[in-house]
Fold this sequence. Notes:
The complex is a heterodimer. Chain A is 77% helix and 0% strand. By secondary structure, chain A is mainly α. By secondary structure, chain B is an alpha/beta fold. Chain B is built from 19 helices and 13 strands. In chain B, strand 12 and strand 13 form a beta hairpin.
Amino acid sequence: MRKFAARWGTFRRYSGLLRELVVRDIKVRYRRSFLGLVWTVLNPLLMMLVMTLVFSTIFRSNIENFPVYLLTGNIVFALNADSTSQALMSIVGNAGLIKKVYIPKYLFPLSKVLSCLVNFGFSLIALLIVMLITHSPFYPSLLLFWAPLVGLFLFSSGLSLILSAVNVYFRDVGHLYSVLITAWTYLTPIFYPIEILPPVMQKIVFWNPLYQYIKYFRLLVLAGTVPEWDTNLYCFGAGALMLAAGTAVFKKLQDHFILHI
Amino acid sequence: MPGYRLKNYYTLSTLLREAERFPCIAFEVFDTLLLRQFLPADEPFHARLKDETPAPAFTQAELEFLRTHMALNPLLKKVYDCAARAGARIFLVSLLPLPADFLTGVLRETGIPQWEELLSAGEADESLPHALASRAEGKLLYLGQYSPDALREAGITVFRYVPPIQRYLQSGGHLPEKPRTSALSERCADTVNRFYTRVTHPARDVAVQVENVSMLFNISSERIDSIKEYCIKLLKRQLLFEEFWALKDISFEVRRGERVGLIGLNGSGKSTMLKVICGVLRPTKGRVEVTGTVAPLIELGAGFDFDLSATENVFLGGAILGYPREEMRRRYEGIIDFAGLHGFENVPIKNYSSGMIARLGFAIATCHTPDVLIIDEILSVGDFEFQKKCHRKMEELTGRGTTVLFVSHSAGDIVSMCDRAIWLDHGRIADMGEAEYIVEKYLNQ
């Protein structure tokens, strides 16, 4: 218990740094661009536009309000994909700092996930714009939009911790993971409905956590219903498990980071 | 009188150890024996010093020579502080008839403002020693030319003064021969060293405690960064690591407000030691305990983002050191002032010169009064003006009770800035004790 209190104390002390790191990420990302922060909204909008143009002709019959369907899937998936692939390099990229000053090292992957979460907030503006344009109904369940995000935040943090730690030892992880992300994109029903998959694939995709988070989010936004307990259990359970695994791996490996970066 | 009998190098330490026993202390500066020992033999007045009794009067040229070749030991201020803390009174005496303005000039270099009375050589009153010895206040006085006997009679202990090693270091790193030491003074030197810390820091306030710390590194013949290499090495059974102990069973304590220097050759483990103390490295064995906040100055500007402006980096840098944002906002003006960056606050620091970045880094790290300041060889950057500023800032911090750990290859810096030195050799402590004594020993190894 005392150990936990000490950890919490350290975290409190460095929460300012976490904030600075997140702010830095956001500032640096669009620093030299003309439109600056507008890009955080514009980016998902343009993406949606392109993909709608390409895919809507194929899937139009099955899905109502395809733009919103696509955008919801896309931004939730992007939250996980962006945060984990940025976090992947976070330890190696901050080698200079880690070698010189004592900082709790988990702050680096965590700051990446948080800055992507802030980014996600801007994407929500894009979502609202699209919903207004397409005249989609605003359900009261929308107010629960944060619920799947909490689960996904835990999940992404856990995965980020694992990836950033393992990447210190094996730099191949970066290359491998970018391939994996592509595969993951296609295995997640972002721009297609899950029903078009053969039954075997549907079973596999069911165990893809990202599918569950997206489903949760879509149920809130598109269907106006709150998911059953099993989806809830799955989402939060997967998040908690991944975070536990990530913490365990990170904790075991972190003492030797400095010898490898 | 034990103080007078002991030979040159150990007298300061003895003084420090014995400070409680000797309420009145006089330093002998510029006596004939001392001058002869350190002057080149072909110097014209070398012979005169030897032959003429009483000591000869100096010509203007000879005085000029002395002025350029002798300086009062930079340690004098430190000794003065220590003795004053222990309640002793210190006087300076010269056994040579040196003119008053000459001595004033030399004394000014020591940086002690409290020289109270200056009596020119030969003019001093016979009864003055007694008057001094009965004074209650511990001011530093210059007495002019007095015979040690008169002082001793009055109860003032006379110590022979150590010549400064800095001058000799500057003249090509050539140190004078170590003077003869009797077995007695050799023994004393060790005792002195052990007691030194006790006297300088009587309150046992430990700021940094290092207990049996060992640090093991695995140096594999090649670094393995990829899965392919790892598998190949695993199959070939080449995953054996070579063991290297960077630190082996190191124990020491640093008391609050103490300034400790680490010296040693390259690869002796100095930087590793600092990293262990900062918490950057976790020791393989042993324990390090640091009381209070640590500000590491291992590399100025570590953690800066070069795309951000100075203002943004002040907050980022402060956060890295764990200072709250509110506090950084309050100290912001002071930081920009110290770094001399007015008018450049909003320029991305990638456009800065390396000196500007170093100044900003130093200003951020020292804006707050940390409990422990760790400095690794960083003051070599920047121009001399900035270095002077840094030295002053560090004086100011130690004045406020900050503990300083300092790594440098410059023996002069260690002597002038540290109270105590730890000499590391191949990951072990070769010796530790009073800075000057250790540096001396290290250079003569």
